[in-house]
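Supplementary Methods, section 5.1.

A reviewer requested that the exact input to the structure prediction be made available. We therefore reproduce it here, unchanged from the version used in the analyses.
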Amino acid sequence: MRWWLALCLTGLLVPARALAAEFWVDPVHGKTDADGSASSPWRSLQEVLDRGLVESRGWESLPYKEGAKLVAKNAGAPIEAGDTIYLRSGYYGDLEIVGYYNASDIHVVAEHGHTPRFRSVLVRAGSHWVFRGLHVSPEFAPSYEETLLFRIESHGFHGPVSNIVVEDCHLQSVQDSSKWSRKDWNERSCDGVQAQGKNVTVRNNVLRNVNFGISVDAEDSLIEGNLVENFAGDGMRGFGARSVFQYNTVKNAYAVNDNHDDGFQSWSFGKDGVGTGEVVGIVLRGNTFINHEDPNQPHRGALQGIGCFDGSYVGWTIENNVIIVDHGHGITLLGARDSRIVNNTVVDARAGGPGPPWIMIGPHKDGTPSKGNIVRNNLAGAINIEGPGTVADHNLIIRDKAKLFENAGQHDLHLRAGARAVDAGSSAEAPDLDRDKVPRPWGKRYDIGAYEYHDEKHVDTASSEK
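The structure derived from this sequence is encoded token-by-token as follows.
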């Protein structure tokens, strides 16, 4: 009892500022000399940073050198680690956050019901920033100019970046690209997100009418639940070790230049250039890649699904992905080692060439064979596997989509009752959940493909989410 009383009294002595605080920015009604309260908001987020109103940490000296120490930056400033900055509707221009290493997260959040608009966002050399609900497009600026929409950047002079979260944001080149010519796509489309560093989360964002969608060099990162719709480059790119790309949707490729468009692409880079290193531990789980939704889409391209041509790819997991492409390359790894391709559904977007799309594991371009891989429980147009120690079993070649799927023409690739893929899979190395996060197995045995057949109309999967 004495211990509990002492603890309570100690809590009463903690200064009020030890608790997280809230601040507001309003570019329409705010003022530079305001106090940042809800009734007296600042007018510019960039001004807040430039005026030193954020207490943080920075390197003791620049240029950054490994092993350098972090020291106090803007000591005594009103905004501290753990605080939230609410943004109200209006135009904020370009945001640049350089050299702010917070001790814990500072949240930059759209106030409920508000639409803060930016031309671009840059976080260079910093840590522990969370961005939620931002709208980013050069279309919001007084004049349009192509740009990189959201950049998370490690920098040789200013230092590395880590622990950044971007979620529930809307990023687009323009709202409507339906009348764009090839020239417009090449000159006006913006890259969406580029992320370097470590421990970056890009979650539940919408990217539309972009060139390259989400490109991640960052290690130990999570790319989850994003929509990339209408793109002229690659939907997603992943290079950082042990990063997870899961439950994203990438759709509608526009072929406007010489880039071979991929839903997801990766390559290694070593001391002797492309293809001379390793990309380790990438997870691709439950993603959907769709070549095109509208057969009359202008500039329709032949999308490659998961295209990884310059290994080595070591310890990868590719599971529960749905891939609908008009190309031979459904899932291709050239130069893979100790990787798993399990329970994916890979189908042709339309009859005729250049498909049907395959699952392929082949040798590295330098001739080194792939080895020690597992290809199991997949539905695909073909299975082409090479390399010692590679196991390929319980895969089915798609002959008649109408007999397998509920409505392939509408991209519904859930299994039909009685389909030969039902209860035909192996439990070995199979994921516990399917693409819809329905538990496996539902029937007597595991099913083949990304979806587990079930006859219930409603399945509660909330408790099963990873």
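Residues 173-464 form one domain. These observations are discussed further in the main text.
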